[in-house]
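Quick question, first post here. What does this chain look like in 3D?
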Amino acid sequence: MLARMTATAASARSDLTEVARSEATLRSFLHGLPGVDQVGAEQRAAMLATRSIKTTAKAWAIDLAIRMVDLTTLEGADTPGKVRALAAKARRPDPADPSCPAVAAVCVYPRLVPVAAEALRGSGIHLASVATAFPSGQAPLEVRLADTRAAVAAGADEIDMVINRGAFLAGRYLEVFEEIVAVKAACGDAHLKVILETGELVTYDNVRRASWLAMLAGADFIKTSTGKVPVAATLPVTLVMLEAVRDFRDATGRQVGVKPAGGIRTAKDAIRYLVLVNETAGEDWLHPDRFRFGASSLLNDLLMQRTRLRTGVYSGPDYFTLD
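> Answer (accepted):
Ran it through. Tokens below.
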């Protein structure tokens, strides 16, 4: 039985290496993926969102969610001082409680990567940078590659890139694939998170296709959104992406992470996503190396709920710094 399963997985890996040899083969593969049952996906996500967990499990989930946060500032008015303050908060989210875990990463624009790198040195916290003409992605490929190389050279060990949604929606899948491959190469040793901007992909079928396309091209993570469009992360979209990474690992043996971003603001929201992860992809994804939250306001609510569980006293929002 084991030998047959191993042979099947090896055959699948071999088949997938041929998928992107032409536009026609890539299109055939992506359009041959099972269609998403929209009603079923939305109902399952809604059902899982009603799950309740016990107090001890909630405390564990809140600490895990904190460890999964990519603490982010992506504003035109960002300054070195703001980035240093964000890095200090990433290291010690609750200065009054040294048992509070640090976050997974700090995410900034490429220009501010050197500042963040200095502020995070020795902390073990990852430094992520959006690149490739974030958030639109509408720049020549050579510009997007230069953007990526500059961020990595300045100290970023994770790159969040945006796909060319115009090319994807026009059906130019091989173009999108080759651009992701080129950005992955420009990352060197840095991990690549590929932002699908699911709010612009229109259908769940497109979300599934874009997820597989990004993974085939070498993505280490697939990410829902830039946070710069009206529709960002949702539970049903994340469900579809989690199914994709689960099925991709079954087919190839390679485990890819998932990062919902945008609109996740409360501890209750975060716990709903963790339940979704556990019930869809499994426990192997309940780790900061495999699941992240792209958030700026989520951390404070996690800290407030953590303090309430620990002390019985609910701290107001002004107890923690505003980012």
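Confidence is low (pLDDT under 50) at residues 1-12.
The domain at 2-311 is CATH 3.20.20.70 (TIM Barrel).
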